[in-house]
């Protein structure tokens, strides 16, 4: 019986093509607007590393001055770390792994004559970063512990930069001229772009492009490579690079990885004890709570999904509701002209339940058509959004979950809009319709 009603629904689409096209288009526009907005919100708020997000932690201690400090006010201190704290965290032995990182930019002089000198951007970090973040390698591997201790001139390249410099060949073992020094290539990454970019939310952008180069942290320090990102300095710093390292400037991002999520309490105890020791040394004058953020808490703290993004999603669903109201009116007009047909069917023995099923199935057919068109419009909207910038392009893509949601949303919206018109159609009195024929 369902297949019969489905065929009736398909035929009804052709009975009044103008009215049907208007209903399908109205429904499709509402679905496309809400789904495209919801898709971006879904990508922005997704867990970038679900397999270990509860075991990766960002520490935050407040090293700001007492001047202007309001303990009752909102905590506006920089969540980055000073070099002093980052170095101590690395030596602490806490957790399974620890890493520190910051953004860098450096001039690269290609050996190929057809390529000009280019500025490349990337990260300086410790080798624990690679297993912590599960970074995939296409060629080679991370630098060795010996290279890290020595601050050796070694580098890991992105696949895009490796292909630009060396073509499709494996470049491991070759050298590139970077920062006026010869760096040996030890690895090439596979395309890797967590969304959101949780490990570099400060200064790098939540949806920034992937890094072109990755250097050892000690190497970047030896070359006195200035941070290419956010730097917040409290108090006066001594001149020179060493003065910068010894200062209270915050510019480094630190991550701890624990064996299990339950080890968080022990890490918090370490952080509290560390802050207490630093206060005894005359640092950390503000007595603010020391905080640990796991990955999802870190995204929430950094407001990766801003309030205006959530508001945009609610407005899009409000627009969908408006489209549903219009669809209800169009369905009422469509079903009202079929009152005589309903009356004859009722006189021939069809029950109200059967009439209800028939018209609701026809509504579902309209919803299915609207869903397909809405899906096409949603893809177009996301493509237009992605053309605005590289960062938006990362977020503006649809996954299988959103594909399924689009179809379900369209069917559900159409059937919801069809409840009132279908109920009205079932109330037709057969005698009145037969008398009018």
Number of helices: 16
What is the total number of structural domains?
2
Radius of gyration: 31 Å
Q: Structural class given helices, strands, pairing?
A: alpha+beta
Order of helices and strands: HHEHEEHEHEHEEEHHEHEHHHHHHH
| Envelope shape | elongated
Mean pLDDT equals 81
Major beta-sheet overview:
6 strands, mixed, barrel
CA(first)-CA(last) distance: 28 Å
- The order of strands across the largest sheet is 2-3-8-5-7-6
Which percent band covers the strand fraction? 5-15%
Number of DSSP strand runs: 10
Helix content: 40-55%
Uncertain segments of ≥5 residues (pLDDT<50)?
431-436
Protein name: ABC transporter permease
Main location: membrane
Domain MacB-like periplasmic core: 20-273
Subcellular location: Cell membrane
What keyword list fits this structure?
disordered C terminus; six-stranded mixed β-barrel; alpha+beta; 50% helix; single chain; 16 helices; 437 residues
């Amino acid at each position: 019986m369902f297949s019969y009603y489905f065929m009736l629904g398909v035929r009804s689409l052709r009975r009044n093509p103008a009215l049907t096209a208007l209903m399908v288009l109205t429904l499709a526009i509402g679905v496309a607007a809400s789904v495209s907005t919801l898709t971006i919100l879904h990508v922005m708020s997704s867990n970038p590393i679900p397999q270990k997000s509860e075991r990766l932690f960002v520490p935050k201690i407040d090293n700001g001055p007492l001047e202007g400090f309001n303990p009752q006010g909102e905590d506006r201190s920089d969540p980055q770390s000073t070099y002093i704290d980052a170095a101590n965290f690395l030596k602490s032995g806490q957790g399974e792994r620890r890493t520190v990182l910051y953004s860098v930019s450096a001039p690269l002089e290609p050996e190929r004559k057809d390529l000009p000198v280019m500025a490349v951007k990337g990260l300086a970090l410790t080798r624990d970063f690679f297993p912590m973040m599960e970074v995939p390698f296409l060629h080679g591997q991370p630098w060795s512990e010996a290279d890290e201790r020595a601050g050796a001139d070694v580098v890991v390249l992105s696949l895009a930069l490796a292909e630009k410099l060396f073509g499709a060949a494996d470049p491991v073992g070759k050298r590139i001229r970077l920062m006026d020094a010869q760096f040996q290539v030890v690895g090439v990454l596979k395309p890797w772009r967590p969304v959101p970019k949780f490990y570099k939310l400060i200064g790098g952008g939540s949806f920034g492009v992937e890094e072109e180069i990755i250097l050892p942290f000690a190497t970047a320090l030896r070359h006195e490579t200035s941070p290419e990102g956010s730097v917040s300095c409290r108090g006066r710093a001594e001149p020179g690079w060493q003065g910068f390292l010894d200062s209270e400037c915050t510019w480094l991002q630190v991550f701890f990885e624990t064996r299990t999520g339950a080890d968080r309490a022990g890490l918090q105890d370490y952080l509290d004890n560390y802050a207490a020791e630093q206060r005894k040394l005359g640092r950390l004058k503000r007595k603010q709570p020391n905080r640990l953020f796991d990955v999802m808490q870190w995204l929430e703290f950094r407001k990766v999904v801003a309030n205006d993004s959530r508001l945009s999603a609610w407005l899009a669903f409000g627009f969908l509701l408006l489209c549903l109201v219009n669809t209800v009116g169009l369905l009422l007009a469509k079903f009202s002209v079929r009152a005589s047909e309903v009356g004859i069917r009722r006189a021939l023995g069809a029950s109200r339940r059967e009439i209800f099923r028939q018209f609701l199935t026809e509504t579902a057919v309209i919803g299915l058509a609207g869903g397909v068109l809405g899906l096409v419009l949603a893809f177009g909207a996301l493509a237009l959004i992605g053309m605005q910038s590289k960062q938006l392009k990362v977020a503006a893509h649809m996954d299988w979950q959103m594909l399924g949601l689009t179809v379900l949303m369209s069917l559900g919206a159409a059937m919801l809009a069809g409840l009132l018109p279908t109920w009205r159609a079932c109330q037709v009195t057969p005698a009145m319709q037969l008398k009018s024929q």
